[in-house]
Amino acid sequence: MAYTNSPMVAYTKLSPNHSGQRTHSIDRITPHCVVGQCTAEGLGEWFEKTSTKASSNYSIDKDGRVGMYVEEKNRSWCSSSSANDQRAITIECASDTTEPYAFRDIVYQTLIKLCVDICQRNGKDKLLWFGDKDKTLNYEPKSGEMILTVHRWFANKSCPGNWMYARMGDLAEKVTAQLGGSADTPTVTTQLYRVRKTWSDSKSQKGAYKILSNAKKCADANPGYSVFDVNGVNIYTSKTIAAEVPFLVKVSISDLNIRKGPGTDYAKTGKFTGKGVLTIVEVKSGKGSTAGWGRLKSGAGWISLDYAAKIK
């Protein structure tokens, strides 16, 4: 799709802290609290530093002015979740410095207008708030639906603060009303993804998961196993890792971290890959990467394959 940016932007300072072109269409909005009554310019200076290692698509400053730091076509570094940031427009909102991190009224009113604008430009006529992490992350939005998510679901943080969290339903309702969509919230049935050798072989089941990515990780750890939905449809089959390696990947960002093991729970080595073509000799699933972790042939460590394109 062709991505556009909001005409509400009053100040622009593009940050180097992003992952380039999105790999998923936009179907989420994630409001954040800055924990400070910031200006658009001040936040822009903060995000301009590579040492900050964070960014957002937009901000709303203390006076209700909208700043842009990462274009909508690109993934920001904002939610402690690459999967969420791949599909979300992230918005940092000026707030008080202590809980409940309240927003000024002009900030909240601008947030409503900005969400309406984001939805309209991305072809959405409804903004949804389920108020539950599992329900939200297991729901696949229809073509005209946008979903609200929050940072606290992906990290040990209060963000967006209890003031804004209590108003997420109100935000969804007001935005949907302005879009002319239905205010009815869809009923979400919790989906369980079962990991088995075959659907009929229930005794081989390794587990049942609410989150599809967790079910895939279990299947990857057990070659020959597949993930089945509630109707017994095979939606994912693990691949034998040994048959796939070695292979080449292309890294297009200069600051991809190298870690000592396959996951964000392993320490960083303090080195980056740089841009270029690398050889992967082993693949494992691990925390913090949807596509898995690849061990470098050089022996330097492991990289997230979310940021590396396999060369066929």
Considering the chains and any ligands shown, give keywords for the structure.
single chain, 312 residues, alpha/beta, Lysozyme-like, SH3 type barrels, 3 domains, seven-stranded mixed β-sheet, five-stranded antiparallel β-sheet, 7 helices
Describe this structure in words.
The chain has 312 residues and is an alpha/beta fold. The longest helix has 17 residues, at 105-121. The chain has a seven-stranded mixed sheet with strand order 1-5-4-7-3-9-8, sandwiched between helices. The protein has a five-stranded antiparallel sheet with strand order 19-18-17-14-20, with no helix packed on it. A four-stranded antiparallel sheet has the order 11-10-12-13, covered by helices on one side. The chain folds into three domains: 9-179, Lysozyme-like; 193-239, no CATH class; 242-310, SH3 type barrels (Roll). The model has no long low-confidence stretch (mean pLDDT 89). Strand 12 (226-228) and strand 13 form a beta hairpin. It has helices at residues 40-48, 82-87, 105-121, 133-137, 161-165, 168-179, 212-220; strands spanning 9-12, 18-21, 28-33, 58-60, 66-68, 74-76, 88-93, 126-128, 145-148, 193-196, 207-209, 226-228, 234-237, 247-251, 257-259, 268-272, 276-284, 293-296, 302-304, 308-310.
SSE blueprint:
Elements: E1 9-12, E2 18-21, E3 28-33, H1 40-48, E4 58-60, E5 66-68, E6 74-76, H2 82-87, E7 88-93, H3 105-121, E8 126-128, H4 133-137, E9 145-148, H5 161-165, H6 168-179, E10 193-196, E11 207-209, H7 212-220, E12 226-228, E13 234-237, E14 247-251, E15 257-259, E16 268-272, E17 276-284, E18 293-296, E19 302-304, E20 308-310
Helix pairs in contact: 3-6
